[in-house]
Amino acid sequence: MSGSVFGVDYGTKRIGLAITDPGRSFVFGRETLVREGGNDAQRVALLAKEESAVLLAIGLPLNADGTEGGMAAAARAFGAAVGTAAGLPVVFVDERYTSIEADEHLKERFPKDTRKRKSMRDRAAAILILRTFLEHGPLR
Question: Most buried of the four, 59, 83, 85, 105, by CB within 10 Å?
Fold first, then answer.
């Protein structure tokens, strides 16, 4: 299947978003949504449709040993809701260390601006989720 993949870094306070180009060679950060409650899945689905995505890649926060905990279950439920709302297939991507990696990258780029780093962390994590998907595929 070709076409753009919409990446989602699901969190309890914010949702980071990213998209690939249709050829899946490049990844572009999109906005970070502040969670509002009941309509978050619909908001993400609408943005994915606006971007003409053909697939949703949802970050799955696994435990260090690879098992799934409560946040992974919440991410799976959220991914299913977005997929249903958007009418798109959903894959899950191991995101164990994406937030830490995103933080490190942003510290290099903005060493003194903690506010800027915080505002970009979730988007940067969504970018890393998509890069992981492009390099390694979805979780099996």
Answer: 59
